[in-house]
Amino acid sequence: MDRIKITGGRPLEGIIPISGAKNAALPLMIASILTRETLTLHNVPRLSDVRLLMRILGNHGVDAAISGKRLGQSEESGETITLSARDIVDTTAPYELVSRMRASFWVIAPMLARMGQARVSLPGGCAIGTRPVDLLLMALEKLGADIEIDSGYVIATAPKGLKGGTIDFPKVTVGGTHVALMAASLADGTTIIKNAAREPEITDLAECLIKMGAKIEGAGTSQIVIEGVARLDGAHYAVLPDRIETGTYAIAVAMTGGNVLLEGARADLLQNALDHIEKAGAKITVEPTGLRISRAPGLLAPVDITTEPFPGFPTDLQAQFMALMTRASGSSRIHETIFENRFMHVQELARLGAQIKLEGDVAIVKGQSRLKGAPVMATDLRASVSLIVAALVAEGTTTVNRVYHLDRGFEALEKKLGRCGADIERISGEG
Ligand code: EPZ
């Protein structure tokens, strides 16, 4: 198992190219099941989650291929993936695969919409909470699906096809909105999604579906209206830049000081987080090719955050912001409202010297912590990268174990940081 070794104390200077968004690429890939034609996705990040999803889709009969490098492309350019679901040969998504990646549960929607049936394993719990799928199933039921749970599997059927309906989510859910969008695109009649998630990744999926021939209005707002169509076609679509990767590197620069251009980043995808990072003491400017983050030496200001659905502060940046606040001049409050158990990084940050007290869903971070390198590991992707952020300023050397979590969501992290002056290396082998 690979490890990452970081010796802290160096400012970051240079350019970091921002990859395509993992959380947009995954639902876009799943949407390929909706059509017999080829869906070509550009700017796909090189991540283990993308590779795993290609395998999962392959199991249903989707031919997935990565195109070779084209003239003018560099190693940083995202990949182009073609997905052709000419014939769906298997409508079962087995436990062994779904339990490795929760988002693969979403295949239930396009399979049901196109084939009238799907048998998908319940994903089970995960490191950031219980994460039920009741709202996803409720959405499918509102579109006329029969849902049964048997031996850990959801069996969804709609022999006569799905019918448009009104889906009113009692709670904002990204996965629920993705599932509703995909299913409603091929349902008969009009679907209204109320209290829809407004995340940029939802808008990305809707725009791709529209290119494939779907009739969708209101994506990016809390009410989406879908007029079902009988079939969808192939399309070419480029994945939007990763706002969580953007925010993570912005926080890293705020942490170490320095000056970095986040190439390809878009401020509108994470304005709330950028505002908080600025409050903490970084300077952020929009440039024609991306976002520039800089911070002069000196103490950071303590800033409170509360995670919320988009356009609020994203839960996927909570751990990284907590790492940043360990170096603020005073105490800050980090309130997690999306997931009930997303504080697993607290104990690992403590191993580096952070002083953080947990009070239910609030973490109180005492600033001015003297961070010192140590071996650490984390149980999820964003928690792991918060340890990298902390290690960049910790005295001495930190070894981050279980790097496979990072590889799920951060393309070439050690190269991107290394090229900006960080003392960071990947050590291959047992860990
Ligand atoms: C997506 O997960 C992301 N995953 C998560 O990113 C992200 O943290 C999350 O949205 C919130 O922004 C992908 O896009 C692949 P939800 P998702 O449904 O769709 C509850 C990362 O690190 N809920 O919006 O699973 C749920 O428990 C990952 O990249 C129900 O109660 O999140 C949570 O409290 C981690 N019943 C809240 O809603 C349901 O049926 C929001 O979850 C569904 C969700």
Distinct compounds present: ligand EPZ
Q: What's the tally of helices?
A: 14
Task: Give a short account of the largest sheet.
Answer: 4 strands, mixed
Helix fraction, binned, reads 25-40%
Large-scale geometry? globular
Quantity of strands, as a count: 24
Q: How big is the Rg?
A: 22 Å
Strand content: 25-35%
Strand order of the largest sheet: 22-23-1-24
Task: Report, as a whole number of angstroms, the end-to-end distance.
Answer: 5 Å
Please mark out the parts with pLDDT under 50 across 5 or more consecutive residues, or reply none: none
Helix and strand content put the structural class at: alpha/beta
Average per-residue pLDDT, rounded, comes to 95
Summed up:
This protein has about 425 residues and is α/β, with parallel strands linked by helices. It is about 30% helix and about 25% strand. The protein has a four-stranded mixed beta sheet with strand order 22-23-1-24. Strands 2-15-17-16 form a four-stranded mixed beta sheet, covered by helices on one side.
